[in-house]
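G., the chain you wanted modeled:
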Amino acid sequence: MNESQPAGGTPASYRIAIIGSGPAGLSAAARAAEIDAAERPGQPPSHVLLEASAAHARTIQRYQKGKFVMAEPGFLDLRSPLRFRAGSREAVLDAWARGIEALGVNVRYGSEVTALRGERGRFEIELKDGGRVRAEHVVLAIGLEGQPNRIGAPGEDCGIVHYQLDDPEAWQNETIVVVGAGDSAIENALGLSRFNAVHMVNRREEFSRAKEGNLNAVLKAINDRALDFHCHYRASVASIEPPAADGRGAVVLNTPDGQRRIECHKVLARLGGTPPRKFLEACGMAFPSDRPDALPTLDAQYQCSVPGLYVIGSLAGFPLIKQAMNQGQDVVDSILGRAVRPVDHVLLALQFAGLPYVAEVEEILALYQQRIPMFRRMNALAFRELLIESRLIVSAGDADTLNDANKQVRAAIERRRAEQRARQAAMLEQMRRAGETPSESETAEPPEPRASEVLAAGSVLFREGEYSSGFYTVLEGEVRLRYGDATEYVLQPGQFFGEMSLISGRPRGGDAFIGADTIVIETPRRTMVKLLNSNDEVRAGVDWIFIVRALQAHFAPALPVAELRAVAQAAKVHTFNAGEPLYSQNETGDCLHLVRSGTVALLRDGVTVGHVQSGQLCGQMALMGDPVRRETARAAVRVETIRLGRAEFLDLLKKDPQRVGALQDETSAQLRRFSVLEALPEGGELVSFLMGEGLGEATNALLIDEALCVGCDNCETACAETHAGISRLDRHRGKSFAAVQVPISCRHCEHPHCMKDCPVDSIHRAPSGEVFIDDRCIGCGNCQTNCPYGVIRMEYAAPEKPGLLSWLLMGFGAGPGEDRAAKPDKQAKAAGKKAVKCDACMGIDGGPACVRACPTGAAVRLAPDGFTDLIAKRLNG
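Predicted structure as tokens:
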């Protein structure tokens, strides 16, 4: 139904007016129409849907032709009278058009709203054509597309920058720079890549905000050598140059390796949008801050500060179609007084199943969000998603309580599984009756429910030296952090921990024990990275506590956080790209640097004399004695440091004078290591060589002493025999200097490049530090592309070889080691190539096979802190 009203005359009145016919508004109007048909048959509609354009779902109408629309998130059920399943843009729009007609939605196209006044029971809406509409309640579902964010770089208005792409086929045989890394940017870039060269600009180091399907697709494109498709990570636009006579302009990027200029015909900026603040504030809405991207303040029913005015969809922080459609139905049910629970209620109930008390999900959410300062900075959707994606850990003080709680959790999981299967069966039956063919994902087993985990009080959350990156928040009770044999901190509700390993990539610095009657949230790295990238306040809070704990560890272990507050606020985090100096030789120093992540090379008169890793200090001599710098400190890889000025340093020493002696001892030991290298004729050059081979960010690197190596290749043979016939190292291609060789073998980096953007999360770091690939690898090749050291191969599974005796006695097969002439069998070809890399023989008794098989002891595995001893031993004979 498309009701029209001439301008002027008596305004039409409705119980509910919905503004905007995107997924959220359509779903709300469909629910209102469904209720009208059931409760008010034959009467005029009690609702109206106002749409400014000539068709429904304007944003999706403007999607590029043929775009595949995803039904994310997969774990969330759909609740709406309108049908929605993953499919092409055209199929989705057609299904909604049929739904609008079948349900009798009262929609008015061409009705652009220019003003909204009033409150519950007496709203008046003014339209651009002069018409007016009155309503008891108003639902605002206008999205953010009308307010695109700009790049903000010089030259942006030179004529080659665009903010919308309707049809990717309209741009052909050109070079296009796509700025942005969200779903819209990815989808546009993929559409353009069929006929153009595409460069994506991602200011982060991964696609942390992308849907899984888009993530898989863009990684595949980056690794497809048949496509001219590139991604520039950690990059930003410095400037844009206007087109020359040949029609080409250029984009200058700031990258970790310096500035890069890309000639291009067009720039497509897909950087999201900001709320139409002026219009919303004129309606009377309140906002939580003055930030341009701040969203309106809403209650649990999506009502803003104006009684009777509701906000749903992207404008409420729900950007995904399925989320927005669920909101649309829920808000109408809430307005009409129907009991309604959000669709994710059941998922959150599972997370809370092991809690030692009974309370409603919404009550628990409100309690935790108000209790924890970091959570108060998040909008409601982000907080709910964080809880769903995290692990809720509950401790029980005695065996009976522990058993009862675990039984309760298992029962909740089984109920959810039964609900999932019943819902799936109903959906498949509906599709069968409609003559539709279900997709593979629609017939697959529903995902495993995530529920709370119950542990005994005193259980270990992590151990010192473990490589893990979970981020923990204490909700109730206490957690004890123990460093060394003596220092112990007790964390109370509202405090968090685990940020050191999350940011630095280094192993855990201590042990963590969960106390009695304690509740802790463990948030996975990817979820936390997404939150840090999207919420500056949360990032600032995490950075601040990182600084505090780093200061405690190095300067004042016994001091409480309160006494370090002023110093921590004065300390600043600095980032240095590879090759950038932190300070230079012979200058007067007024600060020290605590390396937060990465490795810093130290040079005297251009010769490398040492290196400083994350968790260590550099430049402290300028504050402890002679202020003249005796060396240049230069970032060997991308480095983050905490800069501490002279005044703050002296203040710390005054607070804990006992630390002065320990600090002097640490500095003396560091200087002795540097002097060893400086005294060796080739020591500095050898350190420079090792840094150049990426060993500055290594945690476990294979080195070969060529003075001892006899070239037997037992190392490679043993590696292949240990790993199903495929060697994970290549000795022959490794580079050498001063008779020290770095073979092609995994360095197990502090921040593994290969783990970035693995679409199925199949690359992990073991608690003992080894980086390994599990059986879920889909062979996308992204890890191979991201590894700067060429240590990952894409290979078919090796065919089974004859036994050792068959080879020895009968000459069958190629013998021990990798058979490089072998052909994959049909089963291997069907499975496709998978990524293979060194896993340092994780879990194998005796350690790495390459080291054990070396007959002369030439092969060793070391971390950077062992380089000095190796070099001294090697060069001194």
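The two ends are 90 Å apart (CA to CA).

Shout if anything looks off.
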